[in-house]
Design a protein that fits this description.
Blueprint: H1 2-9, E1 17-21, E2 26-31, H2 32-40, E3 49-52, E4 59-60, H3 65-78, H4 83-88, H5 96-110, E5 115-122, E6 127-134, H6 150-156, E7 161-163, H7 169-178, E8 186-194, E9 197-206, H8 213-230
Length: about 230
Amino acid sequence: MLASSLASGLTSDSSPRWLVTNGTTTVGPVHTELLLRGFLGGRIPDHCHVREVRWGAWRPLDGIREIVSLKRRLARDGAPLGLREAAQHLPATSDVGELLTAALQLAALALDANAGLLHRYRAPLSLPVTSAVFGVPAVRLGDVLAESDPSYLLALRGKRFCGSPRHGLLERLVAERLQHDAPLASVLMVPVSCQGRLLAMLELGRTGHVFRADDADDLAAFAAEVARRIG
């Protein structure tokens, strides 16, 4: 797995133990590899602060050498050039959660997204539950989409969309859910479905420039590969 290889490649000493806080909740201590996995999987967003248990002060993530090294290596080696290459980095795993989390990370990197959510269809709720985040506060994890959610209703029909939050209620609701610090220029949703059954939804947002129809098509093909591996 891309995340596993990056994290394990950057940790030669498992002795440091880290505390992580989002300003209200503190978790840990965790070893370095788990810290890096949490960052890669979106469970530790950029706004969090970290300190080694022996330190007296918190630091932003960019003040942690291991995180900086991971970002540099990800930019150099791990960031796929496009979604076709991203599909080649999908992990060979039977863990559906791990596969879907990696899919969100890879899709966001390939499409230069600033924010992303993965909603996984879960029983017994029979509704999508937010199960992975990218550039979005971790507080969104565990949110349940309403039966009347417009994005969900489209996903149930196997439909995708992309557009500006200024142009419609559907796009605006997704942009609000993505909760990015800067205004999003465009949002995109693609369902992950297998044999007509909805498995998950990928929602992405970008600040700098809009998603194109080609981006939605490419992401749909990527989602189909993810669904094939699950199925």
